Give the backbone structure.
Amino acid sequence: MEYIHGLKNFKMNRPSAVMIGKFDGFHLGHQRLLRKLQTLAQSEGIASIVIAFDMVPLLKEKGLLTGVLMERSEKRVYLQDKVDYFVDCPFDASVSEMQAESFIRDELAEKLRVRHVVVGADFRFGKDRRGDVQMLEHYQESYGYELHIVPDVYRGYEKISSHLVKDDLVAGRFQEVNSQLGHPWQIFGRVNHGRALGKNTFGMATINITPDPVKALPPYGVYVVGVEIKDPYDISRMQEGAAGRMIPGVANLGIKPTVGGQKTPDVEVHLIDFDQEIYGEQVVVSFYEFLRPEKKFDSYQTLKEQMQRDLSAARAAWRDMTYTD
């Protein structure tokens, strides 16, 4: 996959199928669009392109940012082996002021040589959100593409949406979150050095990942997780026998109040029965089950005893998941 930042200097030399939206989270609804895109591109031997409008700068400017399910680097990792091009398009002034028909004519038809356009039923675009699926349908013949409006996916009577998933996430409703995503909720990040308290003080070596500040997070607490080492930018960095493996773990997401606390949360993971050195590696941490809230303990010894109970609970949860699968 080729990563493209913005549409300004991007131009295709062959026909393409294009999927357009914000795609915060790539939940089941987004995945349905993605499968349609892949099918169209593969059946005609044309390029597959995802254009994702990044709303973070605009929301920050207006003071409306409440957190995203997936920040841009996570989308890049997620799409790495799924499409030919990922266009990460900041929703800046040039994009927000572009007339809807100009977007169809200049960007889709002329630059991207679009043959198929894949969108959801409520897709809006262009200045003042004047563009919609009716406009895209109207200009199909004029600009030589076919429009594909992909139906929404529902959970009961509710349409699955990024907003719905995020509400469930911040409330800690993990069963609902993971069922709407079609996979466990995840944090992507680079393993960084911590204070080594896990190994030196508590006898449990850990790895540390710092979530992007724009990412929406669930309640602070201890979770059953799985960790996959996955570095699409530098395959040679992967450890022999570790890359691509799902490694069981138990994680604390929060600010670690017992050991002095910190201003920003991070994810500290103990990898079960795994002792390879993976500092600097890109990892994906998948959250499967909530064990308990984060709390401040009276002493390190009390915390150490609780960490052993957490580890036992995580081992049991992984055994149950393995037998179920």
Remarks:
- The first strand starts at residue 2 and ends at 5.
- The chain is about 30% helix and 25% strand.
- Confidence is low (pLDDT under 50) at residues 232-243.
